[in-house]
Amino acid sequence: MEPLTVLASRKKSSVTRLNSNSRIFKLILKAIQEKKGENIVSLDLRKIPEAVSDYFIICEATSSTQVRAIADFVEETIKKELGEVPYRHEGFHALQWVLIDYVNIVVHIMQPDTRKFYRLEEMWSDAVLKEHSL
Length: 134
What we know:
Helix content: 25-40%
Oligomer: single chain
Structural class: alpha+beta
Largest sheet: 6 strands, mixed
């Protein structure tokens, strides 16, 4: 039982959980809105054990050009303001659905048909959904 005692006495992590008032959350929304992203919603996944992050932010763009513009601007804004780069990003070839993964927040920029097909909001229907208007 010695190892369990060591774990119990270990100093707890002081990592602060992300919330919708977090600077990165607000900056991502602002960047999307500035590039005219539409139908912006956030899904609060913090109470879902299987969730891969704390939040999803989902928006639509009407063309591949706009998908790229929003994705590039989100990455530029977060790097400039917070010095953070995404853990990974995907979808820059087809530009139907670009995913930008900041670990605790995953940004999904989708064309309308792609969003209708994948229905992320339905897939994660246990999450608290909040709409963000311009």
